[in-house]
Amino acid sequence: MKHICILGSTGSIGTQALQVVDLLRDHINIVGLAAGSNVDLIEQQIEGFDPDVVALADEAKADLLRMRMKGKRVEVLGGQEGVIQVATAPKADMVLSAIVGIAGLIPTLEAIKAGKHIALANKESLVTAGSIVMKAAAEAGVPILPVDGEHSAIFQCLLADKRRENIHRLILTASGGPFHNCSTDELCSVSPEQALRHPNWSMGRRITIDSATLMNKGFEVIEARWLFDMDVSKIDVVIHPESIVHSMVEFIDGSILAHLSTADMRLQIQLALTYPERRTSPVEYLDLAQAGRLTFCEADMEKFPCLGYAYEAGETGGTMPAVVNGADEVAVSAFLERKIDFLKIPNIIKQAMEAHEPAINPSLEDIMAADMWAREFAEKTITQHSE
Questions:
Q1: What pLDDT band is residue 224 in, cutting at 50, 70 and 90?
Q2: What is the edge-to-edge ordering of all strands in the sheet holding 256-260?
Q3: Does domain 2-146 have CATH number 3.40.50.720?
């Protein structure tokens, strides 16, 4: 029996994780849940999974939840400290880190320091502070199991041969998003509704927009750099619209191992939660004959410059990835609120990168300061644009 806490339980990954757990109750016990502000949904999750402790980052909503849970055995906490208490709950063996954005960094680090095994879906932890997170995990002897489909695929391919000297490159696949076949002129008039219609995956709003700009794939390059200790130059991206091949590893002899499955995040979530065991999952088996042709092509970094900016940030290192992440989060939010058009997202990120002087060996405080600077810079740039 594994005892698990889920950070971000009301989000896309969190809700799918609980679907997985619901089918594995003989093997997995939910100790704690943490979320942002969704009182109604986390109340349903409490009723369904009977955790010992829950937290809402929104203090006012935590107070409301306390009132609703009066007389129940569950402990209700609030604010970031409450989230951290869930992440470090003594009974937990593993923490699924699925909080969206840099807000997931500190709770993930605290869980690592507390010796919890990490199922990582919060890519910003490694994008912004990869060196710090991986060092902490090494010192604590804590494994980090990837939940992202692409990194889970690479992780599984490397089980065959993880010797660094035998690896030529990692190949991340990208669906290309909803605008893969659009011209740059067509991208000028893209609406939030169009950008949120991902052809293959059901994800949260920010990651769906990041998929449409290919920024999400760029973040995955940086994440893979830390997870697998590979230079950014050894990590390639190819467009694969069918989303059947989730990623590949090429070895020095020219052979390539690929991971294929139905496009359903519950498969990767379940593996991270049950590893090293595999169990029957709710995901449909892949019918290769029905899948038909699998196609691949190069990513167009001229049409989708966010991918190139992520590569540049990954090569530069230091605080630059945190700046890209912070500026992107603000720009995506502004696009969803119709304050800027789609093509302004990469423009704002580029301006933030050009204005930032990165610290090369940053502390956690340096990273958080760079994130705040990038957000303020992006907000100011957006305000100037709208005037």
A1: very high
A2: 256-260, 245-251, 167-174, 235-239, 297-298
A3: yes
